[in-house]
Amino acid sequence: MKTLIYALVTLFAMNCGSTQVSENTVIESPALPDFEDTFTNAERIGEMMNYLASNDLKGRDSGSEGIEMAAKYIENYFKSYRLKPYFETYRDTLSNFKKPSYNIVGVVEGNDPELKNEFILIGAHYDHIGTIKPENGDYIANGANDNASGTTSVLEMARYFGTQKTNKRSLIFALFSAEEKGLLGSKHLAKKLKEEDLNLYTMLNFEMTGVPLRGKDYFMYITGYDMSNLAEVSNTYADENLVGFLPTAKEFNLYQRSDNYPFHEEFGVPAHTFCTFDFTNFAYYHKVGDKADLMDFHHMATLVNKTIPVIEDIANASLQEIKLKE
């Protein structure tokens, strides 16, 4: 979330030393998950996080060898989860970035003959900032919370819907490159899909979901809270106060600072980012300390397990319930 950096500098100065350290240790990568496991767990989350945020990927800078490794990793999971490539292949080559960079885009077709022509896009960016000025000899900005966490969350949602096929509306799963360069991956894809006249219902984006909120009466927040009734719809389906309002998100206009925004601009539909980073619960934004061992894998698994039924109900409702507010 490079576009947040000026706001973050101020807030981190105010909240210095406020970190969330998980008790989870590094988990070794097992084989691909059993298709019969329909919900995620901390072990599976840990496997993905420890790879995507590993030193081997060198911070996943767009156009680098490290992000190419991440792209192949995501493609392999999409294939194993039985997602179809949305285009000829899973790769969507960016037209607005000088180095070869790719969104990874798959689709799970809806199982209703009419509603399958309506699309819900579920996304996250998988790039980060690569290598930076060394701190204590460490120069790799691993990008665990930003945004291996969102990427992992989306991959686990893709696993569920790809293997279970419970959705009436069609679901596009998109992992974006070059978010850190100015939302370039999502801008490219939103424009491309608009030119194809895609019937997009809503876009749900996941950003920095690796640590839990503290002292809140809700589990996560959405940016642009008052722009649509998504929070109300989500909480109704979850039967709990799952999604809340974070005043800081509105203060710093986070709605326009992640990959949801290009889809709102192009399509004029509800498009929001789900997040559990509130500027006080994690102090390593764009720093070498943003590592997987500080993530709370149990929290991440809970987020996915709470969100999947909500998405399923949104995808299967007879009418489009999520509406923009005037």
What does this entry look like structurally?
Helix content is 34%, strand content 16%. By secondary structure, it is of the alpha/beta class. The strands form 2 sheets. Strands 1, 2, 3, 4, 7, 8, 9, 10 and 11 form a 9-stranded mixed beta sheet that branches. A two-stranded antiparallel ribbon has the order 5-6. A hairpin with a 2-residue loop joins strand 5 (131-135) and strand 6 (138-140). The chain starts with a helix and ends in a 10-residue tail after the last helix.
Structure at a glance:
The chain is α/β, with parallel strands linked by helices and 326 residues long. 34% of the residues lie in helices and 16% in strands. The protein contains nine helices and eleven strands.
Largest sheet: 9 strands, mixed
What is the highest CATH level, the class?
Alpha Beta
Q: Shape, please?
A: globular
Measured on Cα atoms, how large is the radius of gyration?
A: 18 Å
Portion of residues within helices: 25-40%
Overall SS class: alpha/beta
Tell me the number of strands. 11
The overall number of domains is 1
Task: Give keywords.
326 residues, alpha/beta, Aminopeptidase, nine-stranded mixed beta sheet, two-stranded antiparallel sheet, 11 strands, globular, disordered N terminus
What secondary-structure arrangement, pairings included, does this model have?
Elements: H1 5-14, H2 42-52, H3 65-80, E1 84-85, E2 91-93, E3 102-108, E4 119-125, E5 131-135, E6 138-140, H4 144-164, E7 170-176, H5 184-195, E8 200-206, E9 220-222, H6 230-238, E10 243-244, H7 247-251, H8 261-267, E11 271-275, H9 297-316
Parallel strand pairs: 4-7, 4-8, 8-11, 9-10
Antiparallel strand pairs: 1-3, 2-3, 3-7, 5-6, 9-11
